[in-house]
Amino acid sequence: MGPRRHAAAAIAALGLILTTSGVSEAQPLTPKQSEAAATYERALGDFKAVLAERRRQIDARQPLPNLPGQALYLARVAVISSYKDLTDAVPSRIGKPNKFEIPPAYFDADIEPLIDEYGKLFDVMEAPPADAQNSATPFRDVVDLAVAIARAKGLAPVHAEAAGRISLGLFFAETNGKQNVRNGRSNTYMGSFQTGPSEDRNGRRKWEAIKPEIATLDPALNARDDKEEARARGTDHRFNHWTNVRDGLMNAHAEIFREIPAIVKTLPDPIDQMKLFELIQIVPTPTRSALKSGDLLNYRVSSPTVMKHLRNNSIFAFGQADRARTSASFREILGAMWLFNRKFERAMAKYAELKGR
Predict the structure, then answer these.
(1) How far is residue 64 from each of residues 53, 59, 78, 287, measured CA to CA in Å?
(2) Extended strands (E) in 95-170
(3) Rounded distance, CA 76 to CA 49, Å?
C-alpha cells in the first residue's frame, strides 16, 4: 500500500471525513476556479496524510522527527490558506459557522474532526517532561502574580486586576491554559509562558529587583515564591509553572503594565486588551512604539521582518490576499487575530470563575 493510500486508511480509522463537498455544478468553473478547487483538495489530502503519519508514529511509539509539529502546522496553514483562495474564487463555497470560530470564508466546517485530531496530536507531542513541577492552582497563580507585579509597578487595584485578567489571556494564548508544556514547533520556547532560556534569565533578574517591594505588598505571595524558588533550584525554571509565569511576565510584560490605564481607554474590549499584550510577545518592539505613538490603532508597521513574525503566529497568514500585505495598522492587526478569539474567550470564562469563588 502506497503512502497516500496508507494515510487515507489511517484517517478513515479515525472516523474522519475523506472527501469534501464538491463545488456546485450549477455553473461550469473557470480555469482559475478549477485551479483553486484542485489546490484546496491537494492541501486537504496532504493534511490528512501528515495527521495519519504522525498518529501512526505515536501509536507505534516510534521516534518522532525533530520539531514534530512543524509539518502539521504548515499543512494546516496550507488548508486554511487554500480554502480562503477557493472561497475568494468561488464565493458559493463559503459554508456554515464552525465550532472553532474561524471565519467561514477561511474554513470548511466539515473538516472540524481533522482539527480535533490536530489538537490531540499536539497534546501528545507537547506533553510536559516527567520532572515538570506542576501547580495545583495554575490559573490562580497567573492572576495572583500579575496583580502583585502590577501593584509593585504602582497600578491602582482596578488596573492591577486588569493586569491579572490580561495575563490569564496570555496563558491561554501561549499554551491553551496547559502548564509546563513543551513546544512541537520549537526547541527554544518552553513552559507555561513559552519562554526561551535568555528570556527566562532576564525575567528572573527583573523579579529579583522588585522582590523586596513584592514582599512588603504581599507577604503570602512572597512566601509562596520562596517555596517555589527552592523547589525549582537546580532545574530548568521554565518547567516550574510558578517560576515560568513569573519570569515570563517580568521579561516581556511587566513594564507595559504601567500603560494599562491608557490601554483600557483606547481598547475597552478586554479581548482586544489581551490581543495587544500577546503582540508584546510576538512583535515587542513595534508594539511598544505603537503604544508610545499616541495613536495606537492607526500606528502602521511595514517591516518585512515584522510581517513575517505576524504570519508565523497566524496573523495575515492565510490566503494570497492576506499574505500579499506589506503593511498593516494595529487596528487591522487586532482584527486579523481571529484565531486567538476562542482562547481569550476561554480565559475570560476562567477569570470569571476565579472571581466568582
Answers:
(1) 10, 11, 22, 36
(2) none
(3) 11
- Per-residue pLDDT at 28: 87
CA-to-CA separations, 90 to 38, 42, 76, 83, in angstroms, rounded: 12, 17, 21, 10
Interior/surface letters 163-182, b for 16+ CB within 10 angstroms, e for the rest = bbbbbbbbbbbbbbbbbbbb
- Which helix (DSSP H) or strand (DSSP E) does residue 301 occupy? strand 300-301
pLDDT of residue 76: 97
Long-range contacts from 318-321, C-beta under 8 angstroms, 24+ separation: 318/77, 318/80, 318/81, 318/84, 318/106, 319/80, 319/81, 319/82, 319/84, 319/85, 319/88, 319/106, 320/81, 320/85, 320/88, 321/84, 321/88
Provide the greatest CA pair distance for the chain. Answer: 74
Alpha-carbon distance of 152 to 145, in angstroms, equals: 11
Q: Which amino acid makes up residue 15?
A: G
Residue 11 pLDDT: 46
**328: its cell numbers:** 498593516
As a whole number of angstroms, the distance between CA 219 and CA 217 comes to: 6
Distance CA 14, CA 36 (A): 28
- Give me 217's grid cell: 505588598
Compute the distance between CA of residue 239 and CA of residue 135 in angstroms, rounded to an integer: 11
- State the pLDDT at residue 20: 43
Tell how strand 328-329 and strand 300-301 pair up.
antiparallel
How many other β-carbons are positioned within 10 Å of the β-carbon of residue 208? 10
